[in-house]
Specification:
The structure is a homodimer. With about 325 residues, chain A is an alpha/beta fold. Helices cover about 30% and strands about 25% of the residues of chain A. In chain A, helix 1 packs across helix 8. Chain A starts with a strand and ends with a helix. The relative contact order of chain A is 0.15. At the A-B interface, strand 9, helix 5, strand 10, strand 11 and strand 13 of A face strand 9, helix 5, strand 10, strand 11 and strand 13 of B.
Chain lengths: ~325, ~325
Amino acid sequence: MSKCFNIAVLGATGAVGRQMIECLEEYKIPVGKLSLLASARSAGQTLTFNGKPVVVEEATEKSFEGMNFVLGAVSNAMSKAFAPAIVKAGAVFIDNSSAFRQDPDCPLVVPEINGEDAFKNKGIISNPNCSTIITLMAVAAINKVSPIKNMIASTYQAVSGAGQGGLVELETELDDIHNGKKPQPKVFPHQIAMNVIPFIGSMSEADYTTEEMKMQNEGRKILHLPNLTVSCTCVRVPVMRSHSISVVLRTERKVSVEEARKAISVFPGCRLADDMDGRNYPTPLDTSNQDIVYVGRIREDLTDPNGLNLWCCGDQIRKGAAANAVQILKLMIEK
Amino acid sequence: MSKCFNIAVLGATGAVGRQMIECLEEYKIPVGKLSLLASARSAGQTLTFNGKPVVVEEATEKSFEGMNFVLGAVSNAMSKAFAPAIVKAGAVFIDNSSAFRQDPDCPLVVPEINGEDAFKNKGIISNPNCSTIITLMAVAAINKVSPIKNMIASTYQAVSGAGQGGLVELETELDDIHNGKKPQPKVFPHQIAMNVIPFIGSMSEADYTTEEMKMQNEGRKILHLPNLTVSCTCVRVPVMRSHSISVVLRTERKVSVEEARKAISVFPGCRLADDMDGRNYPTPLDTSNQDIVYVGRIREDLTDPNGLNLWCCGDQIRKGAAANAVQILKLMIEK
């Protein structure tokens, strides 16, 4: 007889929350009670779990009593507001917001990379930034061959990173263009259809955005590389679900292209797609709606003998958010 | 009384050829006879120059007699085939193909950067690769402050880089998606609508594509930096006309962000758009249909004290091809 776990999804009606519910099914998590929680505005909606209807309830401080795990897919402010009640109820909060990611008491976890960190939690485990998860999945295998000293990353980020509203905005703008109407951006600062926007997040230090600094700050914590430096440029592209990242990384000793390919091909959760003659390289469309990070275009960096270039793609809503959170949960219950 | 020049446009019916004709008008080039030349298939079409119809003729070896300049917008093979007849006719061939770009007898020219090289021609002047022109326009001012040692570049290239067929393919695919039909890529190796493709050109050395190697090889010649190294990743994005490039460059001595901004803001053909609080940064949509290269997102490279990050956008058909060629022509006739 296997044990069941009471699980709440906080922010169940958003793009990431809905995907978390699907991932709980797909990963065959033994769920006892499932509570789907959202703001008062979304309460009363009916979602489906394992074929059965579940009514969404308004999240309150009392919602977490009796829960073993809470999967969070809400804003930083909401995560901070509910975290004390979740911890007090004795549940483990696996939080997709960035509220606790730099808190030394809160592990920041990608299960394939630093799963062991999850067990040092004091009630809160943070799910990393989406681009950071996908990039680190691609480079973690190389980091095992020789530690990474620094990275240059340019992202090609899907609209799903802005949630359901981002997905709707791209589709609405494409409809508008088709109908000869001028798109009216609401979610993004500029038209995203047939455009790209080099601004994600808000302004942070030294002219970088908050989104750009996450790659360095979260990368240091996840890879256990406190001196890692990362120059990141985050760019929104008119793609629905999968993020792509062009990465140059420099390792302590030279890692050959063949060593890198071999390491990536055996790394759990990663797949090598690096055969240009066979037109096999990752694209966001080909890597959507699944949990593997695809890596290709591995080349020597022509500017540094210890450098490698690569290109990776992974589904933002899944491995970049919901699936990674459910994988953390699975790791916790299987231990 | 000002002198007039007889000018032929070879490949007049393509996206770049048509733009060359418009640029001849806009730059008020004193044109005597204008010959619009194309393949037998396109001959007979009527185009317009300065409000008057001009019938497209089939290009033959005799088409260039009496011409002062020939603007070329055809394939490498066609450029090579016609170059001897053009030179024999005594015309200067300003060629947009890559056929002669690495020929030591053929200058490779961006007028604002190395205009003086144009006068060393022996009958052929090459127009550089589109991404290379736009990237170098953004960094040339910084190169004057301190020489560039190396660059990392990730491109976001518009579909116009594949000519008229690329423009039509993106629009057709978006229509197909709107109508619930599965897009059938012909020009690009994968669906480009709502996708990005990390493969442009054909395979070259060390797993780089021909398109990627142009940034280094043409950059060396244009900037007069024979030891420049460039690691480039070229990516097609679903944007119509303007290329964007995320660049990290390392200079011999440290150039501050403020020095770089100041140098770029006074460089001819460049405009600084670098005010994040004012939402002023370059996007491909905002920089289409004009000849200036816009530069923003200038930041210190967090991985190298002598490094700078920047983001630039410029119209591929104009400054990346047709306008640059007409600017070379203008330079030649004004000297």
